[in-house]
């Protein structure tokens, strides 16, 4: 009986010794514990107690007598990766993600000949990527993203023929993308975004026939987009945004029938949007914003029935919005702002039943359809953008309304109109012709959109003239394009056979302001730290022997002038002010006896100064039957740049 017990005990001891992992492997784990502050890991259950496999050390998976997996993600490992891990010859998976590991990646990891998965993402690793990792012939996934790795991408990684995932994003890698990566025929994911990579996109990437995700965004890549990318028939996600790519969008991208996300934003792409992109029937996110794309929006985009987000903003697109976009019933976001689009907003957009937000700001669009206007205003653009809280038409470049002839003589015609809703950043152009069908030529450009009167002299008596107005919005901080409205309907007027000469004069004087400290606001516009006091005077004079009844005087206050008050005084030779004081725009019919005058004194404050400063404009026109001998004095314009006490310049 005693002999049988001893034999059994001997067998059990022998079995236990046989099941233990090799000492070198246990030592490698102990080195990991010691070099990464194992005592303070989030979970170090059973570590350093007996055999790693028999005692189930946390995060360790074993095969037969060997370590096959280390899974220590998000476990508060602080320190360096020990070179001893290279002794785990049967390791298949190494996961040290989301810790605080620093130092370099040991080249000894290249000894892990059975390794399938290497995850070191989201640490503080630095230095270069060891080219020796290319010896890991069984590697299927290499994820070194979100570290501080620098240097170039080793071309030797192109030898990893079994690789399915290569994730190196959000590091400090530089240099070009190795053409050898085009040899990774089994690659499914290629994530190189958010580095400092430069040079062109290798055409060899078009050989990656099994690639589903290609993200190269947020680098410094230049050159053109290779048409060979159109060979990636399995591609679902293509992100080349925020680079320095130029040239046109390859028509070959229209062959990517499985593509769901296409991002080409924030590059220098030019030319038109290929109509072939309308073939991408599975596309759900489409972002081309912030390029230099021109031409019209292809009607074929209306075929993208699965589209949820369409961003074409901040380009140079022109023409009208295609009616066909109303077919995109799954669309949630439509951003067309900051282009050169013109014309009527199609009523079909009200069919977009899934739409959450639409942005049409800073174009030359219009609509007289109440249902369309209400639909757009109920789905405003992102509230962090300027003017998104306004009616959508507020920032549209439209020709002025209520264009009319206010005075006519034998040699002059005076026009007046209403200022447009969007009054910043631009001017009106007056076009004139002697025939209704033209040709029309530009005869005057206003100094701002607050100037709403114009007198054209030097005309022939008893002749009909035709006028059209257009509005220009010049490039500004919200749109780098010149946006031009459509032309107004022609207005005709026939000059009189004869008229009495007179001479009206406007003079601006006494322009004053208090210095202001400048501060920066969220949008790139200058803003004074406190309101700036501004004052000026406008004298209206009749410098002729004729007594005038009903001379039209207009001074629309600058947009950025706040808390305005004005007075009228200094009447001479029987002139009579239409009111002694007020607080809004000045638009009056004045009675001015011969050689008389009156003065309007304007005071106000300002805190925001656009690129051109405060533009002060005023105009006067004689009554019907009178012609002015010096039309140049009938209008006045002063550009007031606010002076900042700290020397800040616009």
Concise account of the structure shown:
This protein is mainly beta and 650 residues long. The chain has 3 helices and 47 strands.
Protein described:
Keywords: Disulfide bond, Leucine-rich repeat, Phosphoprotein, Repeat, Signal. The protein has 650 residues and is mostly beta strands. Among the domains are: 404-499, Immunoglobulin-like (Sandwich), CATH 2.60.40.10; 501-640, Immunoglobulins (Immunoglobulin-like, Sandwich). The chain is 6% helix and 35% strand. It is built from 3 helices and 47 strands. The protein has a 14-stranded mixed β-sheet with strand order 1-2-4-6-8-10-12-14-16-18-20-22-24-26, with no helix packed on it. An 11-stranded parallel β-sheet has the order 7-9-11-13-15-17-19-21-23-25-27, with no helix packed on it. Strands 37, 38, 39, 41, 42 and 44 form a 6-stranded antiparallel β-sheet that branches. A hairpin with a 7-residue loop joins strand 30 and strand 31. The chain is elongated. The model is unreliable at 1-18, 516-526 and 643-650 (pLDDT under 50).
